[in-house]
Specification:
Blueprint lengths: L1 H9 L1 H14 L10 E2 L2 E2 H16 L2 H9 L1 H25 L4 H12 L5 H9 L3 H27 L7 H26 L3 H26 L1 H6 L1 H25 L4 H12 L3 H11 L8 H31 L1
Helix pairs in contact: 1-10, 2-10, 2-15, 3-9, 3-10, 4-8, 5-6, 5-8, 5-12, 5-13, 6-8, 6-14, 6-15, 7-8, 7-13, 7-15, 8-9, 8-13, 9-14, 10-15, 12-13, 12-15, 14-15
């Protein structure tokens, strides 16, 4: 079983893309994702599983890094919650996205860094410890910053309850992370065994969210696919570029700048999809940018890592 789990986690990007395609081809197979179980949206339950996995993988050292390198973490967090939200609104206005898609793009922008960013940072030759610290801090700040920024950016267009969004993030993000930390502390020696399976479980969970959102909106997505895909790609690419630029301009070395680029460019799109489904239920298309972002940022992350490593080799050869 552990071998299967390792294969699933290794090819997480491919699996998510496959589920996205399946969402288009066999949308009925994912109807359960957009339904409710025990009165709770299944998407929220799946996201809770992902966040529980994150809690299981955290250690005391991850929090020590925040205290040892507060300035680096502060730079990353500030860039995360300034660059991506502003880019989201700018691109939505630039391309004249309809209201629901605009809300979805903004939600992607105001969410914290994605857990896959840690893997991409490693592949790109970045500072993995800093990546984990940045993801952790931005996730812990999400209950406050995500509703606040979303409200400030879309209050003129769409009305929603920031307090309701705050409570939703507490339920599907902070509570499962806390439970994960507690479970890890209680089971101690066995924690490593459980932890080894969690990346695979998280991969399947996010893939199901992507398949469910795509399946529920397949026809509408196809009618505006070109435009929203372009916006998603630009949002992600500009995040990488501006994140790296901020790193260099604020005195970070190459490894840290790469990490900052990845942390800014890759978002917790699972959370964005969950919030779109729960807070903007009347706008089903609002979850689409998050689903497309989930698939795309895994592709682009692999490309970014390959380019970063190639440039690193070229630089070392030149020296």
């Amino acid at each position: 079983m552990q071998k299967i789990a390792r294969i699933i986690s290794k090819y997480f990007g491919v699996i998510i893309i496959v589920f996205m395609i399946l969402g288009f081809v066999t949308p009925g197979a994912f109807k359960w994702v957009t339904s409710k179980l025990f009165g709770q949206p299944v998407i929220n339950i799946l996201l809770g599983i992902i966040m529980f996995g994150m809690g299981m993988t955290l250690s005391l050292n991850d929090f020590k890094i925040v205290l040892k390198r507060p300035l680096d973490v502060l730079k990353g967090t500030a860039a995360q919650f300034i660059i991506m939200p502003v880019l989201a609104l700018f691109l939505s206005k630039l391309f004249g996205l309809e209201e629901a898609l605009m809300v979805g793009v903004v939600l992607v922008g105001t969410c914290p860094g994605g857990t896959a960013s840690n893997v991409i940072s490693y592949m790109a030759g970045g500072d993995v410890a800093l990546s984990v610290a940045m993801t952790t801090v931005s996730t812990l700040l999400a209950p406050i910053l995500t509703p606040t920024l979303t409200y400030l950016l879309i209050k003129q267009t769409v009305s929603f309850s920031p307090v309701s969004m705050f409570m939703s993030i507490i339920q599907v993000v902070l509570l499962p992370i806390t439970v994960g930390l507690i479970v890890k502390a209680v089971i101690k020696e066995k924690a490593d065994v459980v932890e080894s399976y969690m990346p695979a479980v998280s991969t399947i969970s996010i893939a199901c969210i992507v398949g469910g959102v795509i399946g529920a909106n397949a026809a509408k997505i196809l009618s505006s696919l070109g435009l929203i895909v372009l916006v998603v790609i630009l949002h992600n690419a500009c995040g990488y570029a501006l994140g790296f630029l901020v790193g260099k301009l604020t005195g970070m070395d190459r490894k840290k700048s790469i990490t900052l680029a990845v942390e800014v460019g890759m978002q917790n799109s699972g959370l964005a999809a969950s919030l779109a489904a729960s807070q903007f239920a009347a706008m089903p298309l609002a979850a689409v940018p998050a689903a497309l972002f989930s698939a795309w940022h895994n592709i682009s992350g692999a490309i970014f890592a390959w380019v970063a490593k190639s440039l690193e080799k070229d630089t070392s050869h030149a020296q």
